[in-house]
Each structure stands twice: as structure tokens, then as C-alpha cells.
Amino acid sequence: MQPLIIIFISLLLFTGILGGGLSIREFKLPKATLGVRFTAILTALILLISGFVFHQPKKISFSLTNVLMKDVLKERVVVTIEGKELGTITSDISKPSSTTEFTVSKAGMYNYSVEMFSLYEDNGKEVSFYSKGSGTIDIESGDSFEVQEELNNKQITIKLVEK
User: What is the pLDDT of residue 151?
Assistant: First the structure.
């Protein structure tokens, strides 16, 4: 539909500026009066302006789920996409699985980073730890991702994995 609107606006501007009176082989455009030229330019400008004003880019939404790790009392996951913090997911014993919806401007590949703040119990004492991770994900509308923890050399790394 958009190409047709662009062609229509172009024809209106062409008529308004040049005023017709053009002939190419057997194709002949009649000469336009001043009123028709003014109306054509005004209509083209209104269509152009309304296209910019009313054009709302579609946001792409996706979900991210965090499931509480074993023996952990509480987790808070901070999600950052392309350097911009999108939000936080909080899980605890009363709600061990939490899902949050996020949006990005368009579908595609995005760099992400995730930080996790966790609280667990060790021999009756509450202990906190911090872990993080980063990577790239391909986001399409309606995608679902999950926060996953990997234990490497006694260090936990966080990553996002598509469900």
C-alpha cells in the first residue's frame, strides 16, 4: 500500500509544481489551472505531514522467564539490551518462576547483558552473590527467552536462551 501512496503524492506534487501540459509520445497531460495546482500541492503536503505525524512504529514484544535456582531464597535479574536497561525480573520462594514482557523497537539481533543478584541460605546464614553474563539474541515478536545459569570453574555465568 505504501508504494501506491508515494506514487500518488508524487503525481500530486508533479501536477502542482509543473502544472501539466506535458506530452510524451501518445501520452498527454492537460494543463492544470492555478486552483487545481494549489489543491494538488496542498493535498500532497497534508498526506506527507499526516504520514509523519500518525506513523507509529510497531514495537516488538518478547517475554523473559527466570526460574529460581535450587536453594536460592531470592533472585533479582536486571536485563540490558543494546546498553539500555529494559527492566528487572524478581523471583523468590513464594514465586519461584517469574515472567516479564519487554519490548524493543524492531525485530532483529541484539546485544544483551544480564546481572543477577541472589540470596541463598548456607548453614543458617543468608549469603548473597552476584553473577552476570552477556551475548547476542535474535528477537522476533512473541519470542520467549529464559535466564539460564552455567557453573564454570566455581563461577556462575548468566545467559538468555530461547525457549
Answer: 77
